[in-house]
């Protein structure tokens, strides 16, 4: 029998063998099973008996190949039951030859849904498998993968009837298009032209953002509207995002590919495992991976624990997170846009406000919770001013909606993707800094003179230098120019240092 084992979001084809020998009745499972898989002995026994089948009173050895691959979870139950019934002579296994079987068994013989069916079926398709059998609740999800014939079962008895009598299995539900649901729009943000520009640059280039300002300035509103500026995910990106949500058990009903960039906003009490992933056995993806190809928003960023914030440095730099466990390592993609929002001080009043109770030292300590190495990885860092009454009550209708800005963002992304196509990159934020410092992409000295001065004075790091250059390319793309000029570099530097305010 064939099944699929997951390591992260990567599936590996697993062959389930069953040997029934004379001896004291027992069930032994080999092939690096975890606790859930060890418990399959009792689940499968009860399911077989309660489905009206005979349990073989012999010594049963179940082997899961390859033996060197750790096996996690309960998705092997149905394949184990089929292999065992075939080995005992209860079932002819020819109809199941070359078929991947996935599903957890309940004690009454019902087949229950499992996590990660989408990447499992994708792995089966890559291995050349043409047919899969999945739980009925996972059928729509599995049918997303092209080139695979998906059928579903709700009970072990239905699978037995299919093998013995050819009783048809359940077909996946028809894919009914769902009309797009409107979300937050940039036109709802009052004022904050600087914040709107920062968001547009970030969306066009895939840059990280830090928003600093008093309560009510619009930090959260701006962050929540960043996904509305991003284009829909292409097929490959949508498959990656949907697979991550499938592994986490968060895929919405219907099983369709997630086309909109995800948005994750964990609470400031979030632990390190909840942010970057973790858990016993197979490590689950955290918020930074669930925001892959989308936005990770940390509101009240200084209130997060230092360990949680520092744990973000690796995924921000490399676009993936590696989780090490005693049973083996797991790598999850984590190419997300980080948006940090912070008040200027603990009392959350504007600096210099007559009612602010915080000393300058207290303010520095509060924002000092955001370490230099973390902030050095944030491209756009802007300070927002309080919204004025005239801006709040304006009714002139000249504020651009998300659709207008998103059109400029899409055009800028297309220009960047065409420029970096030979390098396998699509966004300016993904391009390596050394490449931008070498011909033909190196900017003239007169264009970067101010930037070089900041670097020589120590007010800008080498990493910051590269990030400003990347933003300058993004600004040029937004304005329809082939290469950045001195004004583009100056605006990028202002967005980097917060001096634009």
Automatic annotation (TrEMBL):
The keyword Nucleotide-binding applies. Keywords: ATP-binding, Nucleotide-binding. One of its GO terms (molecular function) is ATP binding. The keyword Disulfide bond does not apply. PROSITE patterns: MCM_2. It comes from the Bacteria. InterPro entries: AAA+_ATPase, CHLI-like, MCM_dom, Mg_chelat-rel, Mg_chelat-rel_C, Mg_chelatse_chII-like_cat_dom, P-loop_NTPase, Ribosomal_Su5_D2-typ_SF. Residues 269-344 form the MCM C-terminal AAA(+) ATPase domain. Belongs to the Mg-chelatase subunits D/I family. ComM subfamily. NCBIfam families: YifB family Mg chelatase-like AAA ATPase. This is Magnesium chelatase family protein. It comes from Micromonospora violae.
